[in-house]
């Protein structure tokens, strides 16, 4: 997924560890000693065309109304944000304002590269975002990023096909349980159409996030040590997916080895009644659909709860910046309800603040699933994985091949759990 950053254990990431504590007080901004015009640098990895346009307009409007505090917009490749920041922090050239995501900022915060925002946050900005979302950008009790847009994993439905099969769609007040979703998928598997296409080539984030529906956390703190558990709570979601593939045969088997966006042509072509993926896929559906294709995004699936992992896009201020107060003033402006609604529509993600959610519903009239997107925010909670420095390594080296093997039918559920726990003991436990 292009909007998800690659933050694995790379040579550059290892270099960041060696650079811990090298935070500089030198400026990433320009301004005259006498208090004249200030220029703030603002790096953003926005890549969807509507979002880039929204970013540029907000910055231009700010610059027009704030002649003494100008903002220089710097686009950054979404797939190289982490490594670029490592280089910038080590060379004391980091931008004042940094667009990143919660999963990536913990390491930089621990290494002293990001400013603590607690004393800078305006009261309205702080109170307007749910605490569970703030928790995802909090490290050792301090806030290091302002959450903005959030992804969830949801079901997209071909409404014409489901209506044809006599399936009643869920609502935000009456969402589908996993059992109802499984039953609907089985019912919709008919006449050469599969109930679900599900790109599970990279299944870990999806499974870990959706397992929170059953209280499955995978990672638990025991006397200051993090352990990996694979209890009934963690087993429920992967087992249901496995059953849909091999017992119900309602998930198209060819899609299991595909990336999330790879299933879109089949969905748009009527091969799958539903697909599951990040809510950002809506933007691609709108772009690629032809004719009178009828679709919507459904509310989050429900286990015991509808909870999923909060890993928002964030905006941080470099500790190197000489103008943190002005940077926060810009962020308060940048993330007001009107602007955040525009950014959310560009990326088709959920805005973090209640005011922006209300503005989004007014702007979109709740059509095409926007009501479900807005509704999802209250179910997004801080993930146990968010501050585990070795989680990316466990995810890529251990969990990904293990889940792939289970969903391919080559290992059992018990063997999956053994691989996950043994793998964490081998590569993950050190340092967490």
Automatic annotation (TrEMBL):
Coiled-coil residues are none
Protein name (Swiss-Prot/TrEMBL): Sugar ABC transporter substrate-binding protein
Q: Where is the signal peptide?
A: 1-20
This protein's record includes keyword Signal: yes
Which taxonomic lineage is given here?
Bacteria, Bacillati, Actinomycetota, Actinomycetes, Catenulisporales
Lineage top rank: taxon: Bacteria
List the Pfam families hit by this protein, alphabetically.
SBP_bac_1
Identify the keywords attached in UniProt to this record, alphabetized.
Signal
